[in-house]
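ok trying again, last paste got cut off:
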Amino acid sequence: MVINLFQQEETEIEHINYIFCTDEYLLGLNQQYLSHDTLTDIITFHYHQKGDPVHSDVYISWDRVKDNAVNFKTTYRRELHRVIFHGALHLCGYKDKTTKDQKLMRQMEDKYLSMFL
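nice, full thing came through this time. structure:
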């Protein structure tokens, strides 16, 4: 399903590592590499140049996904897929820093959730 997202977005993949971890581990990465002192569900590190095939490490916190599923009143499976798609969309060039970007990101997450779930 993630490969299909990249195909739909016309983005070539070289290599992606998905690393599932705890809140504590991901918080450490967030502090060390991004200077953020907050919990997050996903951090995506890309090692490729724009236009090159995707080469990335994607870290996902099981703990955050579980808590977010409860908070957003959805299933764990759906929330996990949303987070996976979110990271993949970042690797395809989508951003989420502005309100406008966040709205588009959410629309794209919903698009792929409806296609694959």
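cool. The first strand starts at residue 13 and ends at 21. The beta strands are 13-21, 42-46, 54-61.
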